[in-house]
Amino acid sequence: MDERDALLTTDAIRLHRLVREVAAARREGEGRPPLRRTLVAAMEAVYPSDVYRNPASWPRCAPLTSHVLANCETEMTDGAADAQYAELLDKAGSYLHSRGAHSSARPLFERALAIREKVFGPGHPGTAASLNNLAGLLQDQGNLLGAQPLLERALVINEKVFGPQDPMTAASLNSLARLLHAQGDLVGARRLSERALAIREKVLGPEHAHTALSLNNLGGVLHDQGDLAGALPLYKRALEITEKVLGPEHPETGANLNGLASLLYAQGDLAGALPLYKRALEIAEKMLGPEHPEAAAAVNNIASVLHARGDLAGALTLYERALTIA
What pTM was computed for the model? Predict the structure, then answer.
């Protein structure tokens, strides 16, 4: 057993004992808030920080998240404990969001936002982080109108607190650009995407993973504006960065494969698009799971290529498979 396995086993045993004690206190009708605070502190301390779209962290997240869900209505009694609890809720919500468990993630994000607004105030960057997380989830659920005011609030906070050239501001710009793109506002999405990319290239560097995210998003906007020649080098750069920095099987690499494949498809290069779509599917199934929404999207993309090539039987089989996943 290596050190990571030993640490996980030790943490799990400690948490299980605390959970049993909290459950016993509830059965006995005792509030025992200090014990609940201890449980939250222990879970927050061992819960991975880099969770969203990071499959390497998920084996450790899974058992901890079950404890968070079991205690999601826990009430604290002081600001410091509440802030720590909001951080734990945020991490667990991000894990569930990554796994496609949107209905389970939403109450955790909503609770974290309510706590941070109460403890930190409406203009705090912690509040902005919760606004952004909840908005991203709402968007993935198709609630674009609900997501927009949250993202706009987060951008205002980050610009005021960090300044217009900070990576946190770039993250808010990128998120809002993604929403505008989904709403069909390509002009607005392009303006914000270009701002976000300029900040990230300057502050984070031309080969940072976040720079790749902005490259891919801007490529998508140009693509939908019909500027395929302008989108192509952005997609290629994004893919090269994520393959180098995050690895060939990371979900972001899969997303960038999808972006480049979609461009080749639009250019009529079906032979070039198909292997990229297939790679994206392999990554989604391996890293996110065969029932994840991104796996469904990848299956649907492959079906579209088969359809365009005249393989109607093969396309129909995959379309049906995508529907069963979705």
Answer: 0.86
